[in-house]
Every structure is written in structure tokens, then in C-alpha cells.
Amino acid sequence: MKTITTDELLKKIDAGEQVNIIDVREQEEVDAGIIPGAKHIALGQVETSLDQIDPSVPHYIICKAGGRSAMACEILEENGYDVTNVTGGMMAWDGEVQF
């Protein structure tokens, strides 16, 4: 499984790179702040929401600390998606968030 740190992801965003972020936390957690532009699909909904995820582009998967996003990465990889787990999750995120 590919991984990226929150700092590395933030550098990509700051450099203007197109990044596709999927936040797999629960709604209550997302209500406390989400990375602008990130798509919210709770971990329990990932398998039933594959039609909402573009298989032609890479995705960065984030959760609170990195565990649930790793599980989501496994599910998505098994279904042929190019995904990277964001280690440290939102607990390590120093970038902008929206509410």
C-alpha cells in the first residue's frame, strides 16, 4: 500500500497539483472540519459507493489517524483503484479545513 504524509500531501495542494481526497471518517468527525475539496465517504459506505469514485484518477484516502483509511485503501485497491493512504490522518493535518 502506498502512503503519503500529511505534510507531503499539503505540499502537493500548495503547489497547485490536482489531488483527489476521500475522507472516510464518520459524519460527526467531518463536521469538525474537512480538507477543502475532499469527498466524504464513510468507511462503512466505501464498498457500496464505488460508483461515486472515479477509477481513472489516483485518490488520497484520509481518516482521523490512518487506520480506517488503510482499510479503505485495501478495499479500493482490491477493486482496481489507485489509492494512497494519508498517514497520521486529520490528527496530523496542518492545512486548511472547512466546516
From TrEMBL:
* Domain of life from the UniProt record: Bacteria
Cite the InterPro entries for this sequence.
Answer: GlpE_sulfurtransferase, Rhodanese-like_dom, Rhodanese-like_dom_sf
Question: CDD domains from the entry?
Answer: RHOD
Domain (Rhodanese) spans 15-99
Q: Name one Pfam family in it.
A: Rhodanese
Name it. Rhodanese-like domain-containing protein
